[in-house]
Amino acid sequence: MKVKRYKIDEWVSYCRFPDSEYGKLKEERIRAVVLEVLKKQDIYDYRIYLDNGTSMIIKVREKNLFPFEKPN
Q: Domain range spanning residue 19?
């Protein structure tokens, strides 16, 4: 059983293409908040809200999320 790393209401950084060979795509980070931790039978792990002005709510896998680091 896979243990989920993030919890509801936790701020994270979302990367659309974490496995990309191109640096710009791999380094892209969008601030997001976890809305829901999905059940283990789902393809996706989390439902998140993107805080980039688009107000999109999407389902993502855990490999696309990273701990949120506040800018200095």
A: 11-67
pLDDT band at 40 (very low <50, low <70, confident <90, very high): confident
Whether the predicted pLDDT of 1 surpasses 60: no
Cα–Cα distance measured from residue 55 to residue 43, given in angstroms and rounded to the nearest whole number: 23
Strand order in the sheet with 65-67: 57-60, 46-50, 30-37, 11-14, 65-67
Question: What is d(CA 29, CA 16) in angstroms, rounded to the nearest whole number?
Answer: 8
Whether 5 is covered by a domain: the verdict is no
User: Tokens representing 35?
Assistant: 């809305």
- Residue 1 within a domain: no
In the predicted model, what is the mean pLDDT of residues 34-62? 93
Task: Count structural domains, the chain.
Answer: 1
